[in-house]
Design brief:
By secondary structure, this protein is of the alpha+beta class. It contains 15 helices and 12 strands. The strands form 2 sheets. A 6-stranded antiparallel β-sheet has the order 3-2-1-6-5-4, with helices on both faces.
Length: about 675
Amino acid sequence: MSIIFFLNGLAFGGLGLASYLTMRRGGDFPLGKQLPWLAAFGFACGATSWVEMFSFIEMDPDLSAALVILRIILQPVTGLLLLKFGWGIFKNMTPLPPWTIFIPGIMIVPIAYVITYASTTFITPSPIEIPIDIWSRYLFYLPGSILAGFGFLRQWAVQGKLGFQDVSKLMLGAGLAFLFEAVVVGLIVPAAPNAPASYYNYDRNVYNAFLGEQSSTGLPLGLTNWWDYEGVLAATGLPIQFWRMLSAFAVTFFVVRGLDVFDAIRKRQLKGLQVERDLAQQSAIQAQITARQTAESWTEALVSISRGIAELENVDNILLQIVENARHLLHADFIGLAILNEDLARLELKCYANQERSDLVNDSLLVDNPLILNTMQTAHRYRSQGNERQEALTGLNFSFSQPAKAVAIVNVNLDNNPIGALWIVRYQDESFSDTDLIWLDCMADQVVIAIQHGLMTTQLQSLSITEERGRIAREMHDGLAQVLGYLNLQVQTLDALHKQNKREKFEIELDQMRQAIQTANADVRENILSLRTTLASEKGLISAVDEYLTEFGLQTGVDTLFHKVEEDLNLSSMAEVQLVCILQEALTNIRKHARASQVEVQIEKNGMNGSGTIYMRVMDDGIGFALSESRRSFGLQTMLERAHSVGGELDIQSVPGQGTTIECRLPCLESEKLKKPSLVLS
């Protein structure tokens, strides 16, 4: 019998230890909150079994009495801990059905009856440990085991629905083990003269012994211990302690295995959460990559548009580029740009783009959609919310048959005054976002900048024409007009000499006139060449310089050498024009004053990836000049002004008898800064 009590205590002690260790590890599985009570129950029940084991050993009577008192204390405490665990697992692991709210009221009457009946048992002549044992089992063990059993059975159903079949089977085993525990521990008690202990006990027929003579221990004669009744032994061939041990092992096995499986599930859930977190991180990274790619696409588009504006490209081409980029980047099916006409009376379609093509509208096409007109009047941005009437979206994509389902509209404002509208359309029920409106507004700003630069370009062209006319007028005044005036005087001189019959002087004056005419002819031809080279916009810079040098050499007889640069110079249109004009002015000075036989022109680029500085050097082998006494100051000042107008610098080096070198530095588009140039004379 001692070995049975030892194993029983070992089983429940192991249950308590496993519960405690699991509780220390933590976790959010269903048994987590009830583990302290389960651990306490296991330790208390194990201690009770070992106290009963020591009761079999002959020892000092005082020590035996102490063990009896300890068991009297442990028995109800163990039952209370089991009851608390059973109620917790039954109530808290899964929500109770609504009807369970009536359980306390229903239980008032039976509880009152049990308490009254228990009091009668305590006044029955018997040792005090017997009624304590009986009613600890009835009041604590029995309901606690039943509640724990049904709690585990409820978990069996819940875990089965969740798909955790391994846990579900263990919960079923634990539930049945606790119900078996309720029978062998809570229902079968020591024999007593009152029901139900008189029917369900170790031996139902021995309760009459309580009416006879008792031994010194308080038990019926012939019984040395209260557990020596042999009713269960007679019925099953095994003592009740064996069945309780079997119940203890069953409870311990299924509960401990359930805790392990719950822990495995928790780890599996943690792994799943880790996978979800990794997926979320990957999604976040992918979203960041997508956002970065979107930002790079917008940046590339805006830089491309800005470059076209800076290079003074045709405004219509820039507007077409803007709508094409906006439609693609905003994933729209159609985009339109409308501008007010000259008298500000009609809103006309300027250009559009769809999935098939993009085009400028040459004919006057009226835009009369109410949403667009109202957006211009209210000066607010607009995007559809999906609840608009289809009639309101009519006419947004003009002759294209597919109806618009979503639209976003922004104003095109010049000096805070609306001059047009830019809108995008989708044919699917997918509304545009506020971010789309912001990007569309950004494109509308590019439209305004393009229009402003177009106006500025027109003004610059007018100003350039005026300046060029002034330059030609000065050159004609300084050159051709003076020559013609001189020829007029020479003609009068020749007439006088002819009348005076001074043949020798007549021939001298005639020869001077011939030289003056040749000089005037050279100036006129050079002016014609300059005008043709400067205004030939269809030619590239290098081609224009090469052609000009070739013509210059043929006209003047000066040998020309041109060192070409192979890569794109990436100069603005205005800078290219000024560079050619500076070269023309330098060659004019060489023709008129340098008496050079050879001219060398070198154009190179310093920098990579489209940025840097363009260097042009013009070197001659002429007579040179002293800078402080130069007659070329007017021409040099003109070259300086031209370099200054495009943010460049000019450097002149000349020594009498050693030729002249002129170096011009102009910035490329990406590095162009409007800084004051300097004229360095050395």
